[in-house]
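Explain my protein.
***
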Amino acid sequence: MPAASTHVRVTAIPSVTDALRVVESLLLGSGQRTARRNAWNSVLEDRRRAKDRVEAQRVMEVASGRASRAT
């Protein structure tokens, strides 16, 4: 007797991000979506630069501490 095969259909559950993008596309025109994404990318870039500045400042403070101890 052959084993009975069952077919299971798996449907992906959309993520919250996917759902928000769908709502965004329904409510905003393409120009507004582009402007919003550009603004968010600018925020992320500003955060990256701020992190880099903090790291550079830390390195400079460590280096200046070493230089003052050596003299």
Summary: The radius of gyration is 26 Å. The helical segments are 16-27, 30-70.
